[in-house]
Amino acid sequence: MTYTYEAFVCGMLEELTQALELEPEQLSFQEGDTPGEDCFFIYGGPQRNHRFVLKSREIYDQYGREYTINQTAEIIAQDCRQVCRLSGPHQLFWLEDYEALCGHLMIKAMPAGSPRLSGIRHCKEGDIALALYLSLNQSRDHCAGIGVGNRLLDFWGKSFEEVFPQALANTAALSPPRIFRLEKMLQDAQCEGEEFMGLAQIDIGPCGLCISNRDKVNGAVVVFLPGVASQLSQILGGDFYLAFTSVHEVMVHPAASIDPEQLQQIQRETIEEATRPEDFLTDRLYVYEKENAMIRVWEPKNPTV
């Protein structure tokens, strides 16, 4: 990290104004009640009454370690153009038509206690939040998006219950689940895994399996997509444990083949040694119960006090 958050904010106001060819008054910064609520606001439209919101702390946490402020501004500017129309200099238009925008809705897995969830509609699975996002860009290097809150839903005239299934379907279509053998992942970090929906069985290998998407970006969420857990249960022969090592992937093991307390210890050691703080999802172990067709937090039978 070569610059502070305060320097980042000041630099981004200048660099993003230039990258998007905005007038200075079209870009502002506002501190929230917590750092996670700090935002850049971009104003556009004929009367500049449309507001585009970017979570500044989230951008800083995601890019500040690896990119300069200028590089970050270029990335964010490119991402903004994915869901905005730029009609000549200084005219930033929000895509107001839900039908034109609904294909960009995605689900993102986040810690349920994260301040970044402030104002974002989501549902919870244990201590994991499945948050509604408007996807800007997703690649091996970064995953950018805008959290969808009640104001945007009201603007569209849609309820959370209406758009959440669409976001699930988009996530499944744009980031279909892939299965990885851990030993292959260790040998080739660029491996893209295998499709497994519809397979009757698969070779688990000596080290177990990992579930993600092809790019291994925001991949942990795929296990919550419709039909994925039940398909894994068929492949693995029944109940299985889920050890989320980051927001990008989850390790899965047949319940009959491993001690859950040992697996949870491995999970926590992996998180401590290899997971960046901004990629942390949960250190709790989950289990899929085939009989009940549900994922829940695993609880030890005799917890220590």
Textual characterization of the structure:
The protein has 305 residues and is α+β, with helices and mostly antiparallel strands. It has 3 domains: 94 residues; 77 residues, no CATH class; 122 residues, no CATH class. Helix content is 30%, strand content 27%. The protein has 9 helices and 15 strands. It has a 6-stranded antiparallel sheet, with helices on both faces. Helix 1 packs across helix 3. It starts with a helix and ends in an 8-residue tail after the last strand.
- Helix-and-strand structural type: alpha+beta
**Distance separating the two termini:** 39 Å
Strands of the largest sheet, in order across it? Answer: 10-11-13-12-14-15
| Major β-sheet annotation | 6 strands, antiparallel
Q: What form results from the Cα inertia axes?
A: globular
Query: So what's the oligomer here?
Result: single chain
Number of domains: 3
Instruction: Give the mean pLDDT.
Output: 84
In DSSP terms (H or I, runs of 4 or more residues), the helix count works out at 9
Helical content stands at: 25-40%
Rg, rounded, reads 21 Å
